Amino acid sequence: MNINNNYNNYNSSFSGIDKDKIPMLSNDEKTNLLIEKSRDILYQRAEREVPENGKFKKIFVAFDIPGTKNEALITVEHDAIDPKINRRLSVGVHRQSSDRITSNYIFKGPKKEILDYIKNNDNQSELYKIVTDLSKSVDDYYSSL
Fold first, then answer.
1. Does residue 135 sit within a domain?
2. What is the pTM of this model?
3. Structural domain range at position 60
4. pLDDT one-digit tens code per residue, 85-109
5. CA distance 46 to 112
6. Is 1 contained in some domain?
7. Any domain includes 82
8. What domain count does the chain have?
9. Distance separating alpha carbons of residues 38 and 23, to the nearest angstrom
10. How confident is the model over 45-78, as pLDDT tens digits?
């Protein structure tokens, strides 16, 4: 069994993004930039930390969603049904300082397919839609309390 005990999380921020440009962006544009940066970081980590076969400790990249009290996590973990080969990519959103998370499974496949999905820029809009929809769902839940 392969268990990777390296770092299991990373909080993405605006570092590496033009600081003069940030105040001029809308919250949607900031969210899009954070998702793009998170994809890059997750790709690098998954390439290094996710084994081809077997179980491993899940890895994720987290970032605060601009204009909300929510945090998003993009996660890669082994598949519970077929951990020998398959890996899963998912997105979760939760209210900061809360244990309740709303998540969406996105993609399942071998390591190479997960890496290809993360790297493919065509998937940016799908990830953006999932993050914003989940964030809205979390906001709706807390506004009804």
1. yes
2. 0.85
3. 9-143
4. 999 999 999 998 888 999 999 999 9
5. 10
6. no
7. yes
8. 1
9. 20
10. 999 999 999 999 999 999 999 999 999 999 999 9
